[in-house]
Each structure stands twice: as structure tokens, then as C-alpha cells.
Fold each of these.
Amino acid sequence: MTTTVLPRVTYLNVRHGLASWLLTKDHKRIGIMYLIVVSLAFFLGAIFAAGVRIELTTPQGDFVSADTYNRMFTMHGVFMVFFVLIPVVPAILGNFVMPLMIGAKDVAFPKLNLLSWYVFVLGFSLALVALLSGGVDTGWTFYTPYSSNVSNSNVALVGVAVFITGFSSILTGLNFMVTIHRMRAPGMTWFRLPLFVWALYATSLVMILATPVIAITAGMLALERVFGFGIFDPRLGGDPVLFQHLFWFYSHPAVYIMILPPMGVISEVIACFSRKNVFGYSFVAFSSLAIAIFGFLVWAHHLFVAGISPYSAMVFSFLSFAVAIPSAVKTFNWTATLYQGAIWWRAPLIWVFGFLGLFLVGGLTGLFLASLGLDVHLHDTYFVVAHFHYIMVGGAIMGYFAGLHYWWPKITGRMYSDSLAMLSALLVFVGFNLTFFPQFILGYLGMPRRYHAYSAEFQVLNVLSSAGASILAVGYGLIAVYLLYSLWRGEEAGANPWLATGLEWKTESPPIPENFPETPIVNEGAYEYSKREIKVA
Amino acid sequence: MPDGLAARADPHGHAPASATGSGAAGHHPALQHHFQTLEQQHEVATLGMWVFLVTEVMFFGGLLMAYLLYRVWYPAAWSEGSLELDIRLGAFNTVVLIGSSLTMAFAVRSAQTGAQRATVRWLIVTMILGLTFLVVKYFEYKHKWDLNHIPGANFQFEGPHAHQVEIFLSLYFGLTGLHALHMIIGVSILAVITWMASRGRFSPQWNTPVEISGLYWHFVDIVWIFLFPLLYLVDRAHQLG
């Protein structure tokens, strides 16, 4: 590792003071600002998860009342879905590295990028106000007519928070899409783009097309709550199932907003730490687009038992199975990339291995739920809870940490403790499986989700699950400890500690404010590791 | 699609050589630091606005989906509700908005040819037409308010399908309210653009803000072109015939 002692200007020290951050237009600083807010939301969401797991250690509802329990799992879902999983990879890592990866000075609309952050913080603040005024008890899905006519919790405020936060996501997607189209460095053709950029492009597509629908749906719900409009009201002849359709038209593709960017991260990290070009680059690139497109055509698999026509259910079941194809293309290609690679055992790769294991289980159990007959049995049980946590936490969050560990030296210019990072990856992997695997069995045995008391026969598995959650908490806590420690005691990283390809590694760590001294010119593909000297420390 | 666009993007990728050439002569004052050329900046802004309009289509799409479902389910109530709307005011507003799109197109053309005073004049005419629309809309809403036709606790309606008419009117206020909000935003944008134009910010080389505000304005106009028949003209022919 090179150790430069010369004082130099980076994006971090070019200006000082709070105002220099709050008024910045630098995509790198905005990425850091997202990191702070999203981490806060993650912490809040985790506290509610802890409350839920403590309640479920005993079959009786004795820790909190049923009503409080409803509010806890709802606020857990609201914070984790809208304020963590949706923005976590695109808004933090995407904002920071995507312009660097394509050799641009910034995103296409830097002011809009800052505005997205403020919109996000506004939505987050409203959700906090809703929380402090008692929270919401509808579940994060806000199903009508309970949410519109019955619940006496603060549904309208959370609806408005979701509406507003949606615009942050829309503007980020718009910004990324235009950036990828128009801001690439000379020679950076579409098929030389890193796969993370392809994944972000596919994600932007989903953000742009799906998010407006949840925004208007949350808006309609708020109109119904505040002014007594009747759009979903069955007393007037309105259809609550229409709400479910509109909700899932966004919220299913939203799963791909959560998982596609981490998939892009996985491609970067696997190529780097097996010192090989990604196997079947164009297949991996196009499978991102395929997932984004298929993702729009499967929403009604959430409604199999809501009384939709059996013929449409068959079509949606078939299409849901079809999503497995591009997902499997990715998984097989990653495995093939590792095959005969010069594997370099460093922490980011360990996180990737965790991702692969958990994503595999999450993806395959999705096929169980896409089967019409089986879904009748498993719908609204813990099987569903386990399945989507394997994808959304096991997949998305493992992928996020893989990316954070991979780019941390670039973002901060410092190295963290590799062995502690491996330890935390291991703790998270073990803790995660212990938390959620028992839930598959619970669901199969018939334990419904969202109940605060349950039959005594389910206790052993629930205690296992709660024990796993505490290991998970230690694993996540450890990350915060060694990453923060690295900020002032970490070794200097140098421009390219992983000897990786990619433009982001060609500039200094942390990068200079304008990213590159002069616009880079690209004349090779994204992963030409075979041409590089393989140096494994 | 990506390939074609990549081919178009490439020349800008190779632009730095020419940009340094023009850089010696001094940058255009409107050129932002992260772009290489004004042309790139123009294309970024235009693409950004088009993508934004796509999100707007999806935004209105959620409400229109609800409209479509209930119209198929409750055709009689839709006919009844539609007859409650004032077709003359609706038609007048349609003409006003189409006229405003024409004047907006004149404003864009004037900006492209560098006719500063004409640009300002046409922008002002466009804003006046937009405000006319909003004033008429206000009186339509006021009338509904007086009749207790606003959905909610005080809703009153005589007729065999009163409940479903309430859904119709919920969607009427949802759709036209959202449209009116877009009009208000549009007029505000035009006010800023007019101010910029009067300060001589635009030239034949740089008039992108006028052009993309025009795109937005035309979009809001087109939304109304859909809303007018969907809301005001349900079963009118039947009534006339």
C-alpha cells in the first residue's frame, strides 16, 4: 500500500462546516449524507424488529399489548422498506461510485440530486412524526378498507410520508438514467460499462415507471382518510382489491429496486476477487433488464387468495416462475466466474458468499409461493416472512455490505480490519439463518404472520429465531465499530487497494472534488483482469 | 434502444478535444461545470424532461386505472355524474388550454430565433391563458361546493346511484385537482422563465429552459385533452340524441 503523507485536496476536505455539506452538489458528499440518514433508519427499524422478536419468545402476548405489537411490526416494515432497502444501494453506493465508474464529473443534475436528499429527509421526518404520535397499525402494506375506514392510527401522515419519499426515488432514478445515457467518458460504450452501472440502469427503469403509482396510491389513500373521498370504500361500491393491485404494481417491482443494485455489486466484487472477467458479461447485463421488465408483470401473485380470476392467477403464476430464469442466469454466471479464478480471500468476497447462499434460498422459496396451490397454504404465514427476508435482508443487505466493504477504502481513503469484517460477515450469515430458517418451518406448520400470541407448540422455533436475531444484532453492531474505528486509525488505502479494474480505482482515495484531474479515456472492457499483474497479498 | 442512443452519445464523449478548443475562447456563461459542451447540456436537460414526463404518465395512470375500473362497473353512475359537470365551462377551458399550447410553441420559436421581446410577450400570453383556466376551474369547484357535491361527510346527491356518483366525483376531484396543481406549477415555472427571458438569458445558442418548460406545458395540456372527454363527455351523445 502506498502511503502518501503530502497534504492534498479531496472531496472531504475541500470545504469545511455543516453548510458545506448541506448545500453541496457533489454526488460523493450526497452519497455520504444518504449513508447517515439511511443508517439511522436502519437502526430504528432494527429496534422495532427487536421488540417483535422479544414479544415472540413466549407464546402469550405478554411483552406488549396486541395494539402496540401491530404498531411495532408496521413501523419496522415502513422504516426498513421505504427508508432503508429502497435507497440503501442506489442512493448511497450508486450516488458515490456510479459517476466515478463512467468517468463523469458528477451526475447529470447535481442540484436535483441534492433535492432528492432533502425530499427523502422530509419524508423520513414525517414518518418520525407519525411514529412519535403513536405509529401506525396497518402493516406496511396499508390494505384498505382497514387503513382507510377502520384504523384510528396516523395512516394519513405515513401515506403522505410514502408519497413524498417516492419522489426522492423517482428523481434519483431519473438522474441516474440520464447520467448513464449522456455523461459517459469517451470510449465508455454500453458494453464496457461495469455491471453495477447496468444494474443501476435497470433499477432506474423500475423507479421511474413504478414509483409514481405508489405515490398516487398513497395520495388516494390520504385523500380518503383526510377528506373522506371514496375510491376504495366498499360502502360506496369501491373495491379494496383495486388498492391491492395498485399497491403491488409498485411494491413488487420495488423488490427489484432493492435487489438489482446489490446484484450489480456482486458482479463487481466477484470479478475483482477472483481476478477474472465476469463470465457471460452481456448475459449478466441483460438479465438485469429482464428482471426489471418481468418484475412489472408479476404483481398479482400477492393476490392469489384475494379473489382474482383463476385464469389471471395462472398467468401471473407462470410469469412469476419466469423471473427465476434471469435470476438463475446471474447466479450461474457468478459461480462460473469464481470457477478457476485466483480467489483472493478478503472481506468483501466473504459478504458476497453470504449473499449467494441467502439469495439462493430466498429465490427458490419464492417459487414455492408462486405455485398457485401451495400459496393457498402458505399465504400470510411465516413462510412468506422468511422468504422475503431472505431476499430483502439476506440478499439486499448482504450485497450492500459487500459493496460498502469493497468501496469503503475509496470513500474514506482508509482500510478497516479485514479479519473483523470477515467475523461480522460470518456472524450475520449464521445469525440470519438462525433467525429466519425456523420461520420457514413455522410457516409450513401454519403459524400466521403478524400475530402477537401463538400456540405453545411453536415456541421452540420462535425462541431459536429470537436467539438468531441477537447474533444478527451483534454482527451488524460490529460493522459500525470497526468501520468507524478505521476512520481515524485505519491504514491509508491508496488509490487501488484491491488492484481492481474500473475507473473509480484510477483516481485517488478519497477522490478529488472533480473526480478526475482530466476526463479519462476508456479503451478496454470493465473487467480486464487477465491483462493485469495478479498480486495477491 | 441502448445501442442507438450510445451511437448518438458517442460524439459528446469525444467532445473534450473540441471543448478545449472553445475553452480557449471562453465558456458560454450558461455552461455548467460538469458538462463538456452546451450541446451535451441541452441533450441532458431534454432527456431529463422526457423521462420526467414518463413518470407523470404513470402518476396520472394510477388514478385513470381506478377511473377505468369503475366506469366499466358502474356505467349508469358515470353517465349521471358526468351530466353534473358543466360542459360549456369544460369546453371553454379546453379551447383556452389548446390556445395556450399554441402561444407556448410561439414562445419557444421566438427564443430559438433570438427574438427576445416576442419570447417575453408569448410567455406572458401563455401564463394569462393558464390563469384563465384556473379561474374557470375555481368557479366550477365553487359551484360543486355550493351543491354539496364534494365527496366526504357532507356529500349530498339525489339519484338512484348516489354512492357510485360519489366515487365518480372523488375521481373527478382527484384527477382535475392533480391537473390543476400541475397548471399552478406550470404557471410558476413560466413566471421564472419569463423573468429570465426579460433579462436576456436566452439566445439562439442557448434556450433549453424555454424548450423544456414548453414540453412540460404541452404535457399538462395533453392530460386535459384526455380528462375532458373522460369526465365531461360520458354519454352526452345519448343525452343530445
Note: Residues 214 and 250 of chain A are 6 Å apart (CA to CA).
Amino acid sequence: MAQKLYITTSPHVHCGDTIERNMRWVIWALMPALFASFFMFGLGALIVTATSVLSCLFFEWFITRFLLKRPSTLGDLSAVITGILLAFNLPSNIPLYMIVVGALVAIGIGKMAFGGLGNNPFNPALVGRVFLLISFPARMTSWPVPHQLTAYTDAVTGATPMNLIGQIAGGNSAAADQLPGLGDLFLGNIGGCIGEVSALMLLIGFVILLCSKVITWHIPVSILGTVTVLTGIMWLINPVLYVNPLYHLCSGGLMLGAIFMATDYVTSPMTPKGMVWYGIGIGFLTVVIRYFGSYPEGMSFAILIMNAVTPLINNWCKPKRFGEAVK
Amino acid sequence: MNTFKIGGVHPEPNKLTADRKIETLALPVQAVFPLSQHIGAPAVPCVQKGDTVRVGTRIAEPGGFMSASIHSSVSGKVAKIDSVIDASGVRKPAIFIDVEGDEWEPSIDRSDKLVLQSNKSREEIVECIKNAGIVGMGGACFPTHVKLCPPKECTIDTLIINAVECEPYLTADHRLMLEHSDEIIIGIKIILKVLGIDHAVIGIEANKPDAITLMRSKTSMVSGIEVMPLQMKYPQGGEKQLIEAVTGRQVPPPPALPANVGCVVQNVGTVFAVYEAVMKNKPLIERIVTVTGQDVKNPCNLKVRMGTPVSQLIEYAGGMPENTGKLISGGPMMGRPLLDDTAPVVKGTSGILMIPEADAIRRAERNCIRCAKCVQACPMGLEPYLLATASEASDWECAEENWIMSCIECGCCQSTCPSRRPLLDWVRLAKNRVGGIIRARNAKK
């Protein structure tokens, strides 16, 4: 017998899944929304997204190469996703240097400071986004109106559906007339952050993620379900102040957050039961912040808060064990 | 279609030998019989160097209640009682017999004639099975006579025949059903008689439609024996998973047994061996082995005498492919790697699998990205990522609290991990330690 044999314990086969395969599918799933954003915001969307992705890649390379002195981790593609998601959470008229700062915070503080992919407690893109929101509140809360294809920082800004929903809840019933139709909301023909505007394209991304088995339905469905139920109750109580839940579902960062940000592997719970509680928590906090907080939008904060609770959820929500006595 | 409920994976079936008829392998030059081929105490030799033995002569007696006898599968002279490295990779005592001719014990009925009836009592049947050295042929090698005598306080209502064969590549049970269905039905009736019940279910995975059709036609006139096709999902043939798939009952965690939920599970190969022992007076001296692999020239199903060196099986299958990087006894999900091709075929050898070097090498492990795929895959509802982490940190308490002793070592977690973490290695380590801690605690009480 000439062959040299390897000795390892079972199992001796692997399904072939890799980190890269999952990341590639997330990138593919983000493409429809990226396409919609180019269509709505043109040049601005292109510049912001490209800058964000390149900055994230650069910082991850720089930190692994010179500070950690480890082999490069760019190949796992997670920095690309952080870059796209950070850009998706920015308005299309934001100046370049802010994007670079956001990318540094996202990759440097959000991810690498904790030991890189797999160890970060918070979603890196949201860490970057919230840092920018707190540091540059004016630039981060003025959104260009769509269809200014060649404009960048000079784009004309206007009220987003989220602003209007807030104003209506504050008693300004005139704002209700400015609210775009549900069709425009669903397709994304509205103002807002780059990647969040088109609910339709984000839902197509959701289907891609489900079909490629990158994520399960638990987190997105429980978030969207919770928001629908809570805003639905408020709408039923007072339809003058509180808008139809469909407006909530299609506006702001809800879809983007529920499908792409909250489902981040590293920062979400490990069991289906835990994922549902996590989703309910995010949905609840989002509605609370949207209606009662000082920011018009609550998705980012809701996800970050629930990221912090994830270890506790993992402790509380154990899977149903085989043979466990029925209580 | 019935299946177990929690977790599971879908490995490539790769049943290359499903259409290959069982062929009989020639006698070896020397046969080697390790004394521990079963769960429990090793057998004790009852022959000495120089003794002449025939096919079917008992050469080792049970070493305790939980043990099994071993019979010579060849005729010839005992060359020595020494040690051999078996499929577990550990050197173990063994009896070596030089083959001379092929002379059988006269008490064995070697004809192909089907024996339908026996007037043996229950006790006589169990004694017969015990004397034949029969153990579970699915791979676990649990002594069958022990399994057929469940604790008095348990009421058994269902006999489940495990013909699932969910391990990729293996087709030994599949072929056995196609070629020896009548014997299997009689074997089932024998076991039903021992258990004193009248309900048996044959669980077959849906990827063997020919076996399902055949067994259905054979059992249509037999009351009490039912054929149940099961969904293709690994580990459908795990004992606890199979019980759940067939009856909907979940066996509680260890130390509970299948008998606690009224079930006894027997592998279809074991049933065949029971038929031969009871009706033909033939001890367990040969078995069906699938010799296979992606690049193997002539993958086949062989009827092999126990003790035959694996090298002889590989030679029959066209030799070991140049690119072979791993030689496995059993299937790719739970099989054990062999150090070389000199190991003998034993009672639990269901297959010999040759894996190309490219697939044999483990890829580098990376950070856990907490994708939760191991949690979704675990058929026991455990959290493999957590158990592995606890094991790495030597946190045995955490491992025990999180049900580590329920792990059946099916390998679903590790085979799905995108970060290629050796989850099951860590879990096995912790299982071992926690098992020791539990035993020590019970001993104190």
C-alpha cells in the first residue's frame, strides 16, 4: 500500500458551505436595492457606495496588516458587506470625509477592535452609522428627494415619509397631504437613505437570502410582524394621528434593517426561539422610538440595543431538546 | 412521509453500489478475530495455539453479561493469540487462524433452503442468538441477546427494523433486503416471538423504492409487519431518530433506553443473522460489506468471512485508487479511519470507503461566525457551537447543563459548519470528561 492515509475523526464529508458563499449571497441579495438606489439617487448613490466599500476594505486591510500583523481577511468579503450596508444607511448627499470616518468607526471600532469577524457584539455598519448620526446630525438627517441623477452634495433635500409620519403623530394633520402614495413607498420613489427606499427590491433580496439558505425567516418576519401589530393597534385607536401600518412597513430603514442588518450572523441569537424574541424586541423598540423618541427613525438604535441583549437571549432561549419532558 | 422532527442534514447519497449484486469473496489466507468487536467486555479465548478449528467453531466466549462470543469463520489451525490494530486504531488482543480448506461444523445447515418454522421456545431462541455471537450489525455492535431482554418494568409494543441505511455510500442493508427478503421476514417473526408482541415496522429511507416495493409485497400477507418509507434525511437511521419517525415518541435523555418508550430497534442485517442462527444453526461468521469510493474501479457489495483483511476486499474492488487519502471503516458521516489496509473485517464493518486525498484533508478552521447552522442541523436539539466552546474552555459544568450527554455523534454539526470548525472533536472530548464526572458522582451516592 503506497498511499499515505490521513487519520481524522468523523465526519469525513462536508456540505461545502463556506463563509465566502454566505457572504457572496448577501452581496447578491443587496444588488436589487443597490440598483434601485442608483435609479433613484444617481451619481450620489454611486459615489457614496463606492467610497464606503473601498474605505471599509482599506481599513480592514490596514488594521490586519499593520496593527494586528495577521494574514489579510479581505477574502471573507464581510468588509464589502459592511461597506454596502453602511452606504445604504447614509443619505446620498453626504460628504466624502464623513463616509470615510464612518467606515473607520465601523471597521476599526465596530469589528476589528473586538477581534474581527465573529467576535463583534454590535453590527459594524450600524456602529458606523450611529456614530455619524450623533456626530453630524444635520447632514445625517437631511435626505435628497429622488430623481436628481447628476447631483451629489448639491442635491435638493426634502421631507421623508418618516419625517411626515412623525409630524402627523405630533398633530400636524396637514403633513398627511404630503405623504406619498403607498405605491411610491413600495417601489422606493421617495426620499431617504440610499438603500432603504425600495421595499420591493429589499423583499427580492429577502427571497434570495431565503432561497440560498443564508438566513431563516425568523428574524425578519418577527420584526415586520411586531411592527405591523403595534402600529396597527395605534392606527385602530386613532387613525388621524397614527398612519396605516403599511406606511410603517415601507418607509424608513425598517425593511433594510429587518432583512439585512438584524440578520447579521454574528450579532443575532443562535436559536429559532431566540431569533423570534430578538425580532419582537427590535420591532417593539423601533415603534417606540419612531413614535416617542426624538429621532424620526429608530431601526438602527433598536437593532444595536437588541445586539447587546443577544448574549442574554442565547442564555434564555434554548432549543427544544430531543426527549425533553413536556412541561 | 414520516421523519424525525428536529434538525438533520442532506449529504450526497453517493450510493454507487445500489445495483451491484452481493458477491462472495474468496477465503483469506489468515483470518484475524479481535476479541472486542462489540460493546461490553472483551470475549475470552477458548482455543489455544495449535488447535484445529472448523467454520463455526466457537473460539472465544462472552467475557460477561454484556459481551458476545466469537466464532471462527474459517477452518484451519490457530496460529497465535496476539494483538492487532483494529478499526478503532487501538492495538487489541486477537486470535489468528491460518486457513486450511473449508470444513464446516456439521451442525450448521449450509443449504439455501428456506426454513419457515421452528419449535424453539423464547428462552431457547435467546440462548441460540447469544450462542451465535450476534451483535447489532448497524455499527454499534450492541449484543443482541441483551437488547432482546428489555428491563422488566418496560412494556414493549413495537419492534422497529432499521433498514434506513442513511449513511452515504453504504448499500449493504439495501442489497440484503433485495436478495434475502424472505429470510428477513422470518427473522422478524422470530424476534417478535421473543418479545411476545405482534407489531413490527420496517423503516426504509425513500431512496430505496425497489426495497420498499419488495418488502411490501412480501409483508402484504403477513399480519403485524408493516413497511414504512421514511424521508431522506440524515441521521434518519439513528436509533432515537428512527423511533421518533416511526412512532412519534422521543426517547428521554440517557440513561433512558428505547425500551422506556416501548420500542426495540434491530438492524436489518441483525435480523438476517438471527434467522441464520435460529433456523440454520449458523453463528455470525460472515457479513455483507460495501466496498466503495468515488474513484474505486469496481465498487461492490461483498459477502465476507469475518477476520478477512481489508486489503483483500480492496483488491477485489480493483485496488486502492492512487489518489486515496483516507480509508474508512463504515460510512463517511460516522465511520472510523483505518491506519492501513491490514485491519480485519469485524462484526460491525458495514463498509470500506476510500476517499480521495483532496477530500480527506481538513480545511483550516476559522472563527465561529455564529451563523447558527450547527444549531439548526443538530438532530438532538443541542447547541454544538456552545458545547464546543465550553469544551475548549474545559467548562464541563456548562457542557453538562447544556445536555452534552444527549449527543449521538452523528456529525451533522461539523459537516455543515461554514467555518470548518472541528465541533464534534470538541464535543467528544467534553462528552468523555462529563461522562467520567457523572460516573464518579453516581459511584459516590
Note: Chain B has a mean pLDDT of 94.
